[in-house]
């Protein structure tokens, strides 16, 4: 492969030209030969652990980089809670009755992966296994990042945010005249009902935000950014979510805030992952000069408009 850089040394002036630095070339094109399956897999796993601090740093940066935007979103969330009785009532009465389909049941052998969760978890496992088999680094990175987004969603939403908010779930149907059956409520401001940390689905004070909305949107954001496609990942997770919508006992604000948190999680993981891989590649390039060796040739070049040199680097 030849890399050509033309240096034009004009007698009267040095014309400007766009710079195409060889360091900007993707590392895959610089390597003499592709790493073996175990080395690629090891690098992907190592990067996933090394990027953990960066993941949370990116999440924090998203919130703190623009306080006006954060304040605007906070005000919007409060507004959503204020109208939750109306919007959730509309969801129960008008939308849910018109969604009447279900996906075939997948029996899961993984603990706590139940119902439609299998449609999210098993494709990630399949992507990783297939990418490992054919030694495809990109697929492994996407699968690992998606798995991280599920783990972060569980910790951040299910364990931390639900415990801090301790909001009770809305009763079905919220607009009927039936008495409230605890731990459900018809009051959208029914927060602060702490009853231990709930590691599984349901229970008192486990409504805000929705873990499923968080995790589904986090995974969708990872796939969207990694493959530069909105329609497929978001359409897929939405179809999976709606197929079991009647089991998601949440206020509308729970769902929307869960989607927002999931988007931040997925975006932060991808950004951090890219930085970590770039850091690793630059380190390998620096520490192993054999990755980049170049033979140089300098050839005089004369034309009617200028005099210069033709520089050829072969590597």
Automatic annotation (TrEMBL):
<protein>
    <recommendedName>
        <fullName>Phosphatidic acid phosphatase type 2/haloperoxidase domain-containing protein</fullName>
    </recommendedName>
</protein>
<dbReference type="InterPro" id="IPR000326">
    <property type="entry name" value="PAP2/HPO"/>
</dbReference>
<dbReference type="Pfam" id="PF01569">
    <property type="entry name" value="PAP2"/>
</dbReference>
<dbReference type="InterPro" id="IPR036938">
    <property type="entry name" value="PAP2/HPO_sf"/>
</dbReference>
<feature type="domain" description="Phosphatidic acid phosphatase type 2/haloperoxidase">
    <location>
        <begin position="149"/>
        <end position="274"/>
    </location>
</feature>
């Amino acid at each position: 492969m030849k890399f050509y850089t033309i240096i034009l040394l004009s007698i009267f002036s040095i014309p400007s030209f766009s710079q195409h630095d060889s360091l900007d070339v993707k590392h895959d094109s610089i390597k003499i030969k592709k790493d073996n399956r175990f080395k690629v897999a090891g690098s992907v796993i190592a990067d996933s652990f090394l990027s953990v601090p960066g993941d949370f740093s990116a999440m924090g940066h998203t919130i703190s980089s623009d306080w006006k935007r954060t304040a605007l979103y906070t005000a919007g969330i409060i507004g959503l809670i204020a109208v939750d009785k109306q919007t959730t009532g509309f969801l129960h009465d008008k939308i849910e009755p018109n969604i009447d389909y279900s996906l075939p049941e997948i029996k899961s052998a993984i603990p706590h992966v139940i119902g439609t969760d299998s449609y999210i978890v098993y494709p990630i496992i399949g992507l990783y296994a297939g990418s490992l088999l054919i030694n495809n680094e990109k697929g492994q990175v996407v699968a690992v990042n998606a798995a991280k987004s599920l783990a972060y969603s569980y910790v951040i939403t299910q364990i931390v945010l639900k415990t801090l908010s301790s909001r009770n779930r809305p009763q079905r149907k919220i607009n009927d005249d039936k008495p409230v059956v605890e731990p459900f409520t018809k009051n959208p401001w029914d927060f602060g009902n702490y009853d231990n940390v709930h590691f599984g689905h349901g229970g008192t004070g486990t409504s805000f935000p929705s873990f499923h909305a968080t995790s589904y949107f986090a995974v969708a954001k990872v796939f969207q950014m990694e493959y530069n496609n909105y329609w497929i990942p978001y359409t897929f997770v939405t179809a999976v979510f709606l197929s079991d919508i009647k089991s998601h006992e949440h206020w509308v604000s729970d769902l929307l805030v869960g989607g927002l948190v999931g988007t931040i999680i997925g975006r932060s993981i991808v950004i951090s992952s890219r930085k970590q891989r770039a850091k690793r590649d630059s380190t390998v390039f620096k520490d192993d000069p054999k990755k980049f060796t170049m033979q140089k040739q300098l050839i005089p070049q004369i034309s009617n408009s200028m005099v210069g040199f033709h520089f050829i680097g072969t590597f």
